[in-house]
Design brief:
Number of strands: 11
Distance between the termini: 23 Å
Strand content: 15-25%
Helix content: 25-40%
Radius of gyration: 18 Å
Strand order of the largest sheet: 2-3-4-1-5-8-9-10-11
């Protein structure tokens, strides 16, 4: 069966790729999905530790930013063979490409051959946008931790530059609305947002510049926004850990449609991205 679809998953460090793809592959292997494997992946080092930790009721450890492990999952969706590629699992190369505006041969080939892009964004890490009307910008504490950061506007700029850079590599112009590659923005760790808003509303609220950029240059039929809570809830308490161990990880997690409807089959996210 010839390959006629290639999905490129991209995202900066700690964007939620690890947990989602660990849950995705576990469900596919255990036949908890309409998606099937065309063959077993040759190397799942990038997510195998996350799979083991979830099975033990433990939260996955974010992939080191400098760990550039490639992940390739060949699947069949609606009788079509699809290559799911994540060429830089730690996300460090994504940041490096933005800074240097250079790309290596591996990234160039995968980008040019992909016709579907999934951009993973952890919106819960995004703070209030920088307001030029105020004279100073105070660092903001995130999630009650001691780690402080000031992202917002600069984070949006990086993501816009990333998309512009990938379009340049793929030799796609913006004089006409883009129909290929199709773009799916995935708002990850949806449960931590505690919102009743739809994914597109969250994107517009948290990342308005990115939302406006995409809305301006992409064909609306070839762009979508989804949410995903691959883990479904934090594994902090012993009760939560025991629940995961007793009921198995593949029974948890959900995706959120553009209309804001939850669907327990989070593997549908890839299918929806392919059929925008």
């Amino acid at each position: 069966m010839p390959v006629n679809n290639s999905a490129l998953i991209i995202g900066q460090p700690d964007s939620g790729k690890t947990t989602y793809l660990a849950q995705f592959l576990t469900r596919v292997i255990r036949k908890k999905s309409r998606v099937t494997l065309s063959k077993m992946p040759e190397n799942i080092k990038a997510i195998s530790d996350a799979q083991k930790r979830l099975a033990s009721g433990e939260e996955p450890i974010p992939t080191n930013a400098d760990e550039n492990v490639e992940l390739h999952i060949p699947v069949i969706i609606k009788d079509k063979q699809v290559d799911i590629n994540c060429p830089d699992y730690g996300g460090e190369q994504v940041s490096a490409h933005i800074d240097s505006m250079e790309v290596d041969t591996k990234w160039e080939n995968i980008t040019q051959n992909s016709n579907h892009w999934l951009l993973f964004i952890r919106a819960g890490k995004i703070v209030q946008e920088y307001d030029l009307s105020v004279s100073s910008y105070e660092e903001v504490e995130i999630d009650g931790s001691n780690k402080k950061t000031a992202i917002g506007l600069s984070e949006q700029s990086k993501l816009i530059e990333l998309l512009q850079f990938l379009l340049y590599v793929k030799k796609v112009g913006v004089k006409q609305n883009i129909s290929s590659p199709k773009l799916t923005v995935v708002i990850t760790c949806w449960d931590e947002l505690n919102t009743k808003s739809s994914p597109i509303e969250v994107l517009a609220e948290k990342l308005p510049l990115l939302n406006n950029f995409i809305d301006t240059i992409w064909d609306h039929k070839c762009f979508g926004v989804y949410g995903v809570a691959a883990q479904e809830f934090p594994l902090k308490s012993q009760d939560a850990k025991d629940k995961y161990k007793d009921e198995c990880p593949e029974n948890f997690g959900y995706m959120v449609t553009p209309e804001g409807v939850k669907d327990k089959d989070l593997t549908k996210l890839i299918e929806k991205a392919l059929y925008l």
